[in-house]
Amino acid sequence: MYSVNYHRAASVADAAKLVKAGDAKLLSGGMTLIPAMKTRLAAPSDLVDLSKIKELQGVKVSGKTVTIGAATTHFDVANDEKLKKACPALVHLASLIGDPAVRHRGTIGGSIANNDPAADYPAALLALGATIVTNKRQIAADKFFMGLFETSLKEGEIVTAVTFTAPAKAAYEKFRNPASRYAIVGVFVAKGKDGVSVAVTGAGDDGVFRSKEIEAALAKNFAASALEGVKVPAKNLMTDIHASADYRANLIAVMAKRAVAAANA
Amino acid sequence: MSDVSLIVNGKRVSGAAEDRTLLVHFLRENLGLTGTHVGCDTSQCGACVVHVDGKAVKSCSMLAVQASGSTVVTIEGLANGADLHPVQAAFREHHGLQCGFCTPGMIMTATDMINRHPEGLDEATVRTELEGNICRCTGYHNIVKAILAASKTMSKGSKGKARQAA
Fold first, then answer.
1. Recorded GO terms, molecular function (chain A) (predicted)?
2. For residue B157, what pLDDT is reported?
């Protein structure tokens, strides 16, 4: 790892000031950034640690409105009793990220700001129609995730929370890489007052996306059987040593079927 | 450089370290606690697992300065003098190790797992929870057996030996 200057931010305002220094990067759980720095894929001059900021932590559920602080760890999301009632699908998703030690450190804000094409949370936030709150503004999820490792965050802008309305039904199904356990395909299905939405991670050439074909079939009938014969086009899907685009296209339909069955269970 | 102050295995320690120093290197090189191992160095294998503020974390993926102000427990902090911690005793009893390289991380992960499941553990849960720890010798069977046995011992109220911080 190259030399770096560490700063621990006491508040979001403090972090916003500190991040202006040199080529600074925001650090949350560090489960991606620290490994990237170790391999010298990332070499920030300064790190601004957000993980000790109180105002960024915790899950709030008020009626149907769920708000999760950006520095809330996957472990805390996976074990939040109020969230288990309001949106068990998101609790399940968080419990599938990495391994227990990674879940103790990694955070929801860090995950979405990094927008890894195989990250789990982007699928959930896109399907739930969530809003990403920053220290400057509020951004709808479909305007936030912009491609591989890209978001609409501006230089130095800090994600402070995500918020969404709890769906009537939802589920997440993940087909995992057998060794590293990330999503080769992950499908989050949500049924709310605005209809059905289905978001796919791990598969898109351009990161997380919504599957129009599956949404159209489920809009008519929210049942796994409605997806019989539905073909997801392989165009714009990733091919790598683990799975071809055609295989991923098939997996999207299979994971969607399982997710709908789980959401209806 | 930053001053890193920690409570490690119950003792207050501090030292200057470059900001880029990983927690595992601070423990091993500055404090001489070489029980915590560096295996893959890519946060996959879990040989470096320690407890920071009561939670199992991979110390190769955290800066020492990030942990400053925290309470850390390493493998050296589990036994009570000559009395092995119940998880260590179970690993010995059930032959839960061969070469022993992954063992410190396995035991720290197991201890955290057992603490988080006071209701008890089943085999499927143990195997799922071991996702972040790799062993290249045992085939895991005896590790799983040891953790299940330790979980039983610890829930039977022999908690006097299992220190709270662990």
1. anaerobic carbon-monoxide dehydrogenase activity; FAD binding
2. 61
Residue A55, CA atoms < 13 Å, CB-side half-sphere: 13
Q: Which two tokens stand for residue B92?
A: 């010995």
> Does A176 reach chain B within 8 Å, measured CB to CB?
no
- A167 phi/psi in degrees, rounded to 5: -75, 160
Is residue A93 within 8 A of residue A126, CB to CB? The reply is no
Cα separation, A171 vs A179, whole angstroms: 24
- In which residue are the tokens 């057998």 written? A178
Beta bridge partners of B12: B7
* C-beta of residue A131 within 8 angstroms of C-beta of residue A163: yes
Mapped onto helix, strand or coil, the DSSP state of residue B162 is coil
Q: Which residue type does B87 have?
A: V
What is the DSSP code string of B36-102? Answer: S--SSSSSSS-TTEEEETTEEEEGGGSBHHHHTT-EEE-GGGTSBTTBPPHHHHHHHHTT--SS-SS
Domains held by chain B: number = 2
Chain segment A171-205, per-residue pLDDT in tens: 999 999 988 889 999 999 999 988 999 999 999 99
Are residues A218 and A224 in contact, defined by beta-carbon separation less than 8 angstroms? no
Q: Which helix (H) or strand (E) holds A13?
A: helix A12-18
Of B43, B102, B23, B19, give the one whose Cα is nearest residue A39: B43
The C-alpha atoms of residue A113 and residue A265 are separated, in whole angstroms, by: 32
Selected from 2.60.40.10, 3.30.300.30, 2.160.10.10, 3.30.43.10, the CATH number assigned to the domain covering A5-49 reads 3.30.43.10
Determine the Cα–Cα distance for residues B92 and B97; give it in Å rounded to an integer: 8
**B27 in helix, strand or coil?**
helix
Q: Which of residues 90-119 of A touch B (CB under 8 A)?
A: 98-102, 104-105
> Which segments of B66-109 are extended strands (E)?
71-73
CB distance from B129 to chain A under 8 Å? yes
Which residues of B are less than 8 Å from A4 in CB distance? Answer: 19-20
B2-34 pLDDT tens trace: 999 999 999 999 999 999 999 999 999 999 999
